[in-house]
Amino acid sequence: MAKSRQEQLLIVLNEFYKRPVARVSLELFLSVLAVIFFAIFAIKPTLSTMVDLVKEIQDKQKLLSQMNDKIASMSTAQQQYTQYSNQFPLLDEALPKEPMLLNALQIIEKVASENALVVQDISVSDLPSETEEVNIGNAERKTLTFNVTVAGDYLSLRQFVETLMTSRRVFLIEQVVFGASNSRDTQYLVAKLRINLPYYANK
User: Fold this and answer.
1) On the CB side of 144, how many CA atoms lie within 13 Å of its CA?
2) Which domain holds residue 3?
3) pTM, whole model, 2 decimals?
4) If the chain, 203 residues long, is cut into consecutive pieces of 10 residues, what is the mean pLDDT of each piece?
5) Which of 27, 101, 148, 187 is packed most tightly, with the most Cβ within 10 A?
6) Is the same domain home to 85 and 116?
7) Residue 100 near residue 198 (C-beta atoms within 8 A)
8) What residues have CB less than 8 Å from 113, skipping those under 6 apart?
9) One domain, residues 119 and 71
10) Residues 6+ apart with CB under 8 A from 136
């Protein structure tokens, strides 16, 4: 009985596959499978290329944004440079590229004279060279220290110190020591100042 059923099943299947519809369905199924199989391998490189292109576009957009920010910063810097360029000589005067000790001493003598003070003594700790050309890219801030002794009344000495501190040339008053002195029965004050003179020089 079981054998006859198998035979009947084989007969039915043979008759089914002999029909054109069954053949077409099988061929269509295999064709679809083949198309899907080859499509996957054909599309995969394209998809990979598309992903790379999208990533490259995003990177370039990020780079473009950074460049736009830098351009905006440079434009702002250019505007500020133009705005303050006329004040650059003042900066060079305040912190010159050499000690310019003689010029500093002339300023001190002038301020002392304007305040009716007598310069009694000036001593310099070190006398650096002022002939060496300074390379801005290789420059560093240095300080020249010197001592000045002036004599006069208190208000004049105070004005002398304040004028030096507000001078265009930077004078850093590190120490002021007051003392009394007598000359021909006249008593007056003596101020001993230790002054730092900043400037730029090669490292």
Assistant:
1) 23
2) 1-92
3) 0.54
4) 64 62 61 74 75 88 90 85 72 76 90 93 78 66 89 92 91 90 78 90 75
5) 148
6) no
7) no
8) none
9) no
10) 97, 200
Nearest to 198 by CA among 177, 174, 172: 172
Residues 109 and 176 in one domain: yes
H or E element, residue 15: helix 2-18
What pLDDT, on a 0 to 100 scale, did the predictor assign at position 1?
A: 47
Residue that is written with structure tokens 């060079």 in the block: 92
Phi (first) and psi of residue 8, to 5 degrees:
-65, -40
Of 11, 59, 192, 174, nearest to 117 by C-alpha is 192
Give the whole-angstrom CA distance, residue 25 versus residue 23: 5
Of the residues 29, 62, 92, the one at which a domain ends: 92
CA 194 to chain centre: 35
Cα separation of 1 and 7, whole Å?
10
> How far is Cα 160 from Cα 113, in angstroms, rounded to an integer?
9
Helices 2-18 and 20-84 pack at an angle, to 10 degrees, of 60
Per-residue tokens: 54: 């999208």
The pLDDT tens digits for 41-91 are: 777 777 778 888 888 899 899 998 999 888 888 888 888 877 777 766 766
